[in-house]
């Protein structure tokens, strides 16, 4: 018997009694299940006819301690079928995700705009185009030591108007859970240093009962039924994509703001015609650069200072 990616949802009874918290699963329609509820803290069994699937003990304990209510959970990331499952399960969806190191219990939290969960999953854990901290941890501990968790779905198709709402939701999780794998500890600010053991212990101590209950309160009543999730996917996938003429594309390029990048001593590192070009050269995402530009200090990965020209 081996661990496999799961798709389930805990119920929203946020009592401290673990039996109440872990006795409900969220299953795809048409899949017969047999949940063993006798051992709610240890290994929680999840069977889909055959073979039987289960959630690891360490992951169960982590979710319980943090009072989380995840929508999707994927373990055994070395399994070649995981990527396709993440792609199919999250297609057209947006929200907040968590990457957990099940050996050290360090974790990373991020947000994914509509249809981008799979890209975040792949870039962080396989392509290594995301967090360098996560990349180094995966290389050290191996991909099988990690779990990918969708913490919460964002109910709207993400656009320029509501993107701030998604970042606010991410901010809440960042400030509540204090993820020490994050380069950004706040959606829009730069962080980027390794925590020593004292810092880790302080962060753990600071995860107060107040924060724990706040997480539970945030998730309370936010369960989406399978039909609702499918409707969200369909709505996102049926969006009419704008078709731009060559002239429009050129105008957009002309309107792109140039980026000036400084070293920490304020010597010029380089100038780029757009955020897109800067991201390619600096090896970080456009999202990371945009966030840094929105902060007072304009710090990018604690290596550069960036400004619009």
TrEMBL record:
<feature type="domain" description="GIY-YIG">
    <location>
        <begin position="92"/>
        <end position="183"/>
    </location>
</feature>
<dbReference type="InterPro" id="IPR036388">
    <property type="entry name" value="WH-like_DNA-bd_sf"/>
</dbReference>
<dbReference type="InterPro" id="IPR010896">
    <property type="entry name" value="NUMOD1"/>
</dbReference>
<dbReference type="InterPro" id="IPR006350">
    <property type="entry name" value="Intron_endoG1"/>
</dbReference>
<dbReference type="InterPro" id="IPR000305">
    <property type="entry name" value="GIY-YIG_endonuc"/>
</dbReference>
<dbReference type="InterPro" id="IPR003647">
    <property type="entry name" value="Intron_nuc_1_rpt"/>
</dbReference>
<dbReference type="GO" id="GO:0004519">
    <property type="term" value="F:endonuclease activity"/>
</dbReference>
<dbReference type="InterPro" id="IPR035901">
    <property type="entry name" value="GIY-YIG_endonuc_sf"/>
</dbReference>
<dbReference type="Pfam" id="PF07453">
    <property type="entry name" value="NUMOD1"/>
</dbReference>
<protein>
    <recommendedName>
        <fullName>GIY-YIG domain-containing protein</fullName>
    </recommendedName>
</protein>
<keyword id="KW-0496">Mitochondrion</keyword>
């Amino acid at each position: 018997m081996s661990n496999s990616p799961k798709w389930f949802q805990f119920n929203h009874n946020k009592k401290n009694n673990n039996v109440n918290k872990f006795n409900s699963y969220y299953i795809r329609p048409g899949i017969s299940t047999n949940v063993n509820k006798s051992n709610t803290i240890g290994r929680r069994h999840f069977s889909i006819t055959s073979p039987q699937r289960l959630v690891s003990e360490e992951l169960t304990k982590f979710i319980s301690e943090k009072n989380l209510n995840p929508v999707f959970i994927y373990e055994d990331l070395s399994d070649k079928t995981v990527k396709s499952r993440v792609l199919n399960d999250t297609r057209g969806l947006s929200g907040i995700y968590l990457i957990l190191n099940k050996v050290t219990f360090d974790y990373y939290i991020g947000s994914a705009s509509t249809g981008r969960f799979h890209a975040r999953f792949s870039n962080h854990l396989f392509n290594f185009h995301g967090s360098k901290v996560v990349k180094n941890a995966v290389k050290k501990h191996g991909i099988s030591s990690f779990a990918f968790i969708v913490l919460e779905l964002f109910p709207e198709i993400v656009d320029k108007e509501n993107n701030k709402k998604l970042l606010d939701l991410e901010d809440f999780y960042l400030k509540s859970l204090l993820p020490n794998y994050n380069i950004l500890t706040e959606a829009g600010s730069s962080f980027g240093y390794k925590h020593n053991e004292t810092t880790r212990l302080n962060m753990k101590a600071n995860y107060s009962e107040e924060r724990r209950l706040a997480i539970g309160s945030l998730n309370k009543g936010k369960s989406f039924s399978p039909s609702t999730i499918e409707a969200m996917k369909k709505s996102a996938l049926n969006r009419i994509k704008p078709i731009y003429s060559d002239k429009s594309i050129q105008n957009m390029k002309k309107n792109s703001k140039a980026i000036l990048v400084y070293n920490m001593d304020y010597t010029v590192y380089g100038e780029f015609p757009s955020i897109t070009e800067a991201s390619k050269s600096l090896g970080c995402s456009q999202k990371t650069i945009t966030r840094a530009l929105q902060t007072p200090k304009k710090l990018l990965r604690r290596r550069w200072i960036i400004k619009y020209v």
